[in-house]
Amino acid sequence: MRCRVCGGEAVVRLEYANLRLCGKHFVEFFERRVLRTVERYGMLRGGQRVAVAVSGGKDSVSLLHALWKLRERLGVELVGVTIDLGIRGYSEEYVGVAVENFERLGVPYRVVRLADYGFTIDDAAERLRRPVCSVCGAVKRYLLNRVARELGANVVATGHTLDDFLSVLLQAYIRGDLELLSKHKPYLPPADGLVARAKPLAETPESDTLTYARILGLRFTERKCPYAGKAVSADYKAALNLLEERHPGIKFQMLRSFLDRVQPRVAAGAGAELKRCEVCGEPSSSRVCQFCRFRAQLAGEHLRLARAT
Ligand code: Q46
Ligand code: ZN
Ligand code: ZN
Questions:
Q1: Which ligand has the nearest atom to the CA of 289?
Q2: pTM exceeds cut of 0.90
Q3: 132 CA → ligand 1 middle, Å
């Protein structure tokens, strides 16, 4: 197997592009694609400060390193954020790995502890009658937005890959969630109180982030969240991988046909207008935001706030 670019020994075979590459040329290929995604969707502009959300896994660690290498070309400044969700036997490790990566690159960073807001994801799993991953997703969105604003960042960049993007797309389609289908984009511009959100790996398959991280010898954690077994997204990803294995390139085809042909025809949902949460002042579609409701429920104030919403 020979690298298509230099003829050296290839270590990666990308079926979707019918391409074999050596380590050096795979790394270049990976970073060029991140750059192209950033440019295609107008995710970042020179002079901006980008908050990179790092969970310590292969995807976000690869994103951090790729953006770090591209930062001068893009003219952006990076700041790292990692959220300690308070999941016993898991959070300690990934927070440590995230911090190690920030320090290795010299990226200024902030560790946000959910416990400082009065609860943890373990508490939510134990005491809230809601799927823990939906609470966790809402908590992460809330904290990332709030902290990014506090850090003066213009954009939050997350390590969501092509597989993550398509898995949400399939779930939205199956639920018939037109609002989500109309809003599910690699880049969401800033809105009242909401910092812009970018997924620079939206065109990068998850298997490639693993290859990138391994070739560069990046430090990432492979430990799984103890609640991951409950995440339905894993089943969607497995189904997508089966399709991809039999029909190489189908993931890219799904992404392009959705963004170019389907989404423009999905009428923008009559999404609830954003107000300000009466408790914390953050953007919210109801009088009290979801985060404050979780917090209150876990603090046993649930009836009082339920009446206020
Ligand atoms: S961290 Fe949170 Fe994931 Fe754990 S509780 Fe679910 S959503 S699985 S990416
Ligand atoms: Zn090569
Ligand atoms: Zn609130």
A1: 3
A2: yes
A3: 8
Q: Looking at the 3D structure of the chain, how many domains does it have? A: 2
Is there an atom of ligand 1 within 6 Å of 75 CB?
A: no
Candidate from 90, 94, 121, 171 with most ligand 1 atoms within 8 A of CB, to mutate? 121
- pLDDT, tens digit, 9 for 90 and up, residues 35-78: 999 999 999 999 999 999 999 999 999 999 999 999 999 999 99
The amino acid that residue 156 corresponds to is V
Output the CA angle 27-69-110, nearest 5 degrees: 120
How many A from CA of 84 to the centre of ligand 3?
A: 19
- What is the position in ligand 1's atom list of the atom closest to the CA of 133? 6
Q: How far is CA 96 from CA 45, 79, 103, 239, 259, in A?
A: 30, 16, 10, 32, 37
**Would you say residue 51 lies in a domain?**
yes
Tokens 């812009």 belong to 196
Domain that holds residue 293: 272-309
Q: Is residue 23, in this structure, part of any structural domain at all?
A: no
Q: What is the pLDDT of residues 88-114, one digit of tens each?
A: 999 999 999 999 999 999 999 999 999
